[in-house]
Amino acid sequence: MLKPISWGAVTVALALTLPVLVQAASPKKAPERGYYDVSRLAPLTDQAGDPVNGRKLAAGKGLCLSCHVMPIPEQADHGDVGPDLAGVGSRLQPPELRLRIADPKVLNPDTPMPSFFKKDLNRLPPNLKGQTVLTAQEVEDVVAYLATLK
């Protein structure tokens, strides 16, 4: 038997959720490098991501191929630690992709995937100490590319 809905609880949930949804609806200027407010999943920049550059980043600087099979056949040695990213744009929306790139530990603290938009990472090469692996615009470019993988 179904229990009756508590409209008071629904009202409280909406009141708590609405500010986050409104905030997520508008793009912001690029935040300080290494800072990502996970309470909002809005784009990190006002400029739309470039999927062509995102593909280059995924195959190179972003290191995506180290752990994922991707539809980038000209590159050899795709990893198999993470899931195959073919079709990921059909499974996840851009805000979800952004969160998984910027700070995947929010979703799964035990994931081996590094945070690409946080400064406090371990095991980075000396030239990246105190920096993020990807800039805000680079995160947006990779998100734009992954969103094309339908």
Explain briefly what this protein structure is:
With 150 residues, the chain is mainly α. Helices cover 35% and strands 0% of the residues.
Could you explain the architecture of this structure?
- This is Cytochrome c domain.
- Residues 49-150 form the Cytochrome c domain.
- The chain is mainly alpha-helical.
- It has a domain at 47-147: Cytochrome Bc1 Complex, Chain D, domain 2, CATH 1.10.760.
- It is 35% helix and 0% strand.
- The protein contains five helices and no strands.
- Helix 2 crosses helix 5 (136-147).
- The chain starts with 6 loop residues before the first helix and ends with a helix.
- Residues 8-27 have low confidence and may be disordered.
Using the alpha-carbon principal axes, give the shape.
globular
Number of DSSP strand runs: 0
Output the CATH class name of the domain at 47-147. Mainly Alpha
Largest sheet: none
What is the fold's blueprint, element by element?
Layout: H1 7-24, H2 51-59, H3 88-91, H4 94-102, H5 136-147
Task: Please give a handful of descriptors for the protein shown.
150 residues, mainly alpha, Cytochrome Bc1 Complex, Chain D, domain 2, 35% helix
